Amino acid sequence: xSSVELKSxxxxxxxxxxxxxxxKDAQQFDDQDQEAIALGISSATWSxxxxxxxxxxxxxxxxxxxxxxxxxxxxxxxxIGLCSIVLHRMGIDITASDxxxxxxxxxxxxxxxxxxxxxxxxxxxxESENKELGKFDYVIGSDILYxxxxxxxxxxxxxxxxxxxxxxxxxxxxxxNRARFTREMLDLGYSHDFEYFDEQLATGQRCKGRLxxxxxxx
Length: 218
What we know:
218 residues, Rossmann fold, two-stranded antiparallel sheet, alpha/beta, 9 strands, 6 helices, single chain
């Protein structure tokens, strides 16, 4: 991580402070070993994993409302992993996943920096299968529908790794692929509900969108 500029900030989630290290901005790039390009990650999208997106903060503020105790939980497209770290601190059985080659090093740094034990992490490429990932009772993700193909790939990935009676919560800030994703989930047999959010974040940013809830009865 030495060849990119970082920043540290304290994010308060439900009265607890989290010290988070992330990329200084979305212009950072370092793929000298070409590991990212080999995975299909272009220079234009390289930094997306390493910045804190407003919707992830909204999700982190809301995960405590979900019935996750005693359940196996998966965060897809975790990026910096703010939601996973919050759940980890709450004692939830959380597995963070992403396919960017730098994600785990940032996640481990932030977990350690907040005085927490190691967090479970697995590679999660939505277009392929990771047999070591297994199945989960609850799946979460925030602002992950930013490309047209994601509607189909994300829905299929969730379904591959979903137990019976699975619950899914996806935070979306109004991406145009949201409606298609919802149709894909309905076609897979999930029920759908949502709630609007409109949050003024501590950074001064205003974040609006939906928390989408899906459930597949066993």
